[in-house]
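Hi all, posting the design record for the shared folder.

TITLE: backbone redesign
STEP: 1 of 1
STRUCTURE INPUT:
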């Protein structure tokens, strides 16, 4: 090994980032996943000063006084707030930088960032700028579905079809990949956030009860299911009665949560179906053999594999660690930067 290679291996803290609408994950080479925090930024509305990022900022969502807003800068799979996205990237990179031992700082890191596929050219530049200003040496951008497929160990560079469905916070991304390129690509704005809103609307419609996003997300994570199971677990939920304006408690069951989410899940199923229809027949036969991989937080909904397999009549596979597929994909690219070159997606550009 040349001395320079040795140097880079020991002294760099190359990092991979999954810039998700709901969560940002950062992998640091030789250390593993070192940050997994909500993609939330809290700022002073008057001075625009950033007050906190990540978990600390999330605690403020829905609880802020007029002078502070807590926002999710990447809402709906696109960068909705430029400046705060930049600040957030900067903050997280600085944080891993700070946590690394001092001498790691000698070398500026290479950074691989998984970005939403719907991002515009201007937004890509903003992401690159943010990483450079936070001290990155090189920045490589990769589309999230491609990174997720790499994270799931799918044979993306081979002449075979790999099908991935990433149900994240803002978007469900559906992609068919073959020979290092995305053959079919669909992105719909029905994903985890929408399922959370379905629960809010259901509870309001059925019980006249108003609940916040944080409570609804908890219900989704605890009771969320797509297919009837043996038991019908129930939990108590607290909110405000819309008519009386007073606090009220009601009990909600798994079956009700399933009913609340069924419409959105059907929309995702339709989109997968459409993508399959657009897929060349040769690739379809590979896919029916290997199965369609489901990843992203939505893959954790109980019974989703069963529902999807039954409706689409193709086997589905839930990724091993669905919340980490994209960041694991970026980590694999850091280990093998040639892999990035073999991905002929026009979107995987390099900044040196
Ligand atoms: N156990 C669970 N059951 C159901 N939903 C879950 C579970 N865990 C997390 N989620 C949901 O998954 C979503 C977040 O997933 P993920 O971290 O993959 O999104 P993201 O990568 O930030 O978003 P995107 O890929 O759209 O940019 C949230 O809506 C969250 O509520
Ligand atoms: Mg994601």
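Okay, here is what came back for every position:
SEQUENCE:
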């Amino acid at each position: 090994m040349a001395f320079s290679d040795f140097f880079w291996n020991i002294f760099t803290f190359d990092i991979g980032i999954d810039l998700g609408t709901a969560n940002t994950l950062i992998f640091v080479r030789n250390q593993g996943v070192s940050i997994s925090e909500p993609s939330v930024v809290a700022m002073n509305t008057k001075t625009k000063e950033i007050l906190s990022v990540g978990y600390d900022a999330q605690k403020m969502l829905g609880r802020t006084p007029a002078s502070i807003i807590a926002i999710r800068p990447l809402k709906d799979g696109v960068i909705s707030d430029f400046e705060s996205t930049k600040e957030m990237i900067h903050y997280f990179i600085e944080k891993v930088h700070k946590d690394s031992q001092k001498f790691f700082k000698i070398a500026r890191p290479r950074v691989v960032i998984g970005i939403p596929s719907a991002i515009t050219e201007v937004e890509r530049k903003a992401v690159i700028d943010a990483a450079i200003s936070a001290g990155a040496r090189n920045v490589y951008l990769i589309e999230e579905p491609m990174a997720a497929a790499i994270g799931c160990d799918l044979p993306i560079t081979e002449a075979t079809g790999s099908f991935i469905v990433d149900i994240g916070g803002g978007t469900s991304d559906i992609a068919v990949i073959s020979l290092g390129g995305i053959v079919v690509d669909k992105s719909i704005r029905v994903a985890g956030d929408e399922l959370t809103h379905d629960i809010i609307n259901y509870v309001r419609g059925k019980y006249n009860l108003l609940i916040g996003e944080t409570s609804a997300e908890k219900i989704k994570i605890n009771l969320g299911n797509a297919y009837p199971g043996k038991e019908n677990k129930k939990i108590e939920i607290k909110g405000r009665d819309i008519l009386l304006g007073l606090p009220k408690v009601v009990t909600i069951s798994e079956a009700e949560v399933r009913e609340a989410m069924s419409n959105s899940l059907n929309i995702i199923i339709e989109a997968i179906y459409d993508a399959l229809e657009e897929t060349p027949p040769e690739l379809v036969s590979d896919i029916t053999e290997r199965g369609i991989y489901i990843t992203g937080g939505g893959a954790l909904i109980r019974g989703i594999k069963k529902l999807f397999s039954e409706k689409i009549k193709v086997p589905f596979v839930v990724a091993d660690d669905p919340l980490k597929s994209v960041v694991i994909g970026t980590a694999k690219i850091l280990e093998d930067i040639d892999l990035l070159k073999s991905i002929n997606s026009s979107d995987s550009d390099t900044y040196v």
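COMMENT: The CA atoms of residues 90 and 134 lie 5 Å apart.
Let me know if anyone wants the other runs.
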